Amino acid sequence: MNVFIDYQIKNGEKMxxxxxxxxxxxxxxxxxxxxxxxxxxVYSRNLTLRYPIFMCFSGSALRFRFSNLTGTEPVTISAASxxxxxxxxxxxxxxxxxxxFQGKREVTIEPGQEVQSDEIPYEVTAGKSVSVSIYLADxxxxxxxVLITGPLSKGFYSYGNFERSGELxxxxxRNTSWFYFLNTIDILTEEKNHALxxxxxxxxxxxxxxxxxxxxxxxxxxxxxxxxxxVSGTRILRQYDCITYAAYGLKGETxxxxxxxxxxxxxxxxxxxxxxxxxxxxxxxxxxRPWSDMPTLEELEEGxxxxxVKEARIRGLKVYAGTLLPIHGxxxxxxxxxxxxCAFNDWMRTSELFDGxxxxxETVRNPEKxxxxxxxxxxxxxxxxxxxxxxxxxxxxxxxxxx
Length: 403
Prior knowledge:
By secondary structure, the chain is α+β, with helices and mostly antiparallel strands. The protein is built from eight helices and 28 strands.
């Protein structure tokens, strides 16, 4: 689908006609940043990363946020660029635009820090794809990124410098679901466009936000972007400060203010809390997962209220809750855990704190056995949904959030 963009770039000034004015920065793609899941430190050298990104908006410029939030060493990006995507691994070489930082191609990101690029003039057509390529010349600690999956979430890495190459070499390239350093892409677009943040853990790090993006596009909701902020294993109330569970990420109090810092966002949908319930097993089983970590219903409610809703309201965001999914059959399943899950769900369904509640639980559960997934909705581990269920979750989101 081609969308007509009527603008010119002349002498650094944007000139628009009366039909389409690009005046507002809105995030069109985004992820969280966490510690990479690894047993030892991993370094890369002379490596090219390439990520094709679906563009839901038309616009006239792009800017890029890169993150070393969870790194313990400086990270140097030697070069980065954006270009029109031809196929997943292939770009149109004539469209390559250099990504710069205060006019320079190379940038060093200190541990715990993020950087934003210069604004890059770029003619973007909604419904197309732009590929971001990143070259890491020297030894680089690969400790800041996130694992995400879904039909729109693809990545590649190649041995060598192919940052500007039209095609990545087959014999030196592999697929990856790890998104390193690239955190958010903003687009200068129309005033009517806005972003919906989907915040959560591994369930949100998997496919349903991608299916929601596809649904919005197919149903004609072209004014909204779906920004996924999700990290596997994370909890609302606590985090693991040990290397065994380092990849389980930051707790909600630390994550949430960073991740809702999203240009053009007007609402956040929160589906979070199941790891608070399923993780504690007692120090006799696992020294890092004591029973003292087991929350009460009141603690979960307070965490959602004070850490999430209050912070979101300060930013002027609407807040929607997403109920927690069935866990029957999961390796730490117990009736008391499921009772807490159901009580927390009931609170989210009825609390006046929220602007609404998306009942994911009701969507994917077995009506005859509500503590378990419905037929075909279990991925097999009894915690994460199947692809069928992820699609159902995407269609359970009310149109109100997409309009």
